[in-house]
Amino acid sequence: MERRKFMKTALIGGGITLLASEGYPLKFFPNPSKNKWAVLFGTRYGSNRDAAVWISEGMGAIADVFDARENPDLSSFDYLIIGSGIYGGKIAEPLESYISKNASLISSKTKAVFVVCGAGGSERASQYLDQLASLCGAKVDLKKSFSGRLTKRLLSPDDYKMLEGFYQRGNRPFEDYDRLQRKDCLDFGEEILKQFP
């Protein structure tokens, strides 16, 4: 093939892919599903993003994953899974704002909620799950809390100062940790899919 013809073909093909609706060719659907699922998350430093992706993987990667800061249109999805990081005892602000703006959609489609927080499986984490389910306005039977992670290098100066004081008051070392387990998230995704095949 002539170089000129090859370049023209490559440019046209690449352009079509880039212009495709929502980058559809780039989506990954190894397992089809009769229902359209989405995982919506709120995160500050990325732990909840990882949990959301792993939950989708546990479902066979049938769920699209969205950050609430993107303000996604979730109206075409049948079921939603909502997850949040916990910051200062509160749901992530961008997620809370998104849920408030889309209350009727969220309440009718939410089937599971999860939180990622340092408290892990404690009673306090259970309260955060109830808080998130209440915010969604949905009766949710599937709830899961995951222990989080702390990477000091990612913290904003204000968060660094606040957490440093928190750990000093508790006489605990202020150091990086990672307690978020991929397998736990995969298992939760599998559990969701078993309940809502």
Write the layout of secondary structure elements.
Elements: H1 3-19, E1 37-42, H2 47-58, E2 63-67, E3 79-87, E4 90-91, H3 93-101, H4 103-109, E5 110-117, H5 123-136, E6 142-147, E7 149-150, H6 157-169, E8 177-178, H7 182-195
Parallel strand pairs: 1-2, 1-3, 3-5, 5-6
Antiparallel strand pairs: 3-4, 7-8
Written description of the protein model:
By secondary structure, the chain is an alpha/beta fold. The chain is built from seven helices and eight strands. The chain has helices spanning 3-19, 47-58, 93-101, 103-109, 123-136, 157-169, 182-195, and strands spanning 37-42, 63-67, 79-87, 90-91, 110-117, 142-147, 149-150, 177-178. The strands form two sheets. Strands 1, 2, 3, 4, 5 and 6 form a six-stranded mixed β-sheet that branches. Helix 2 packs across helix 7 (182-195). The longest helix has 17 residues, at 3-19. It is globular, with a radius of gyration of 20 Å.
Number of strands: 8
Mean pLDDT comes to 85
Which band does the percent of strand residues land in?
15-25%
Could you spell the SSE succession in H and E letters? HEHEEEHHEHEEHEH
Report the biggest beta sheet as strand number plus sense, adding barrel if it closes: 6 strands, mixed
In the predicted model, the low-confidence regions spanning at least 5 consecutive residues are: 16-26
Q: What's the tally of helices?
A: 7
Shape: globular
Distance between the termini: 49 Å
Helix content: 40-55%
Gyration radius, rounded: 20 Å
Structural class per helix/strand content? alpha/beta
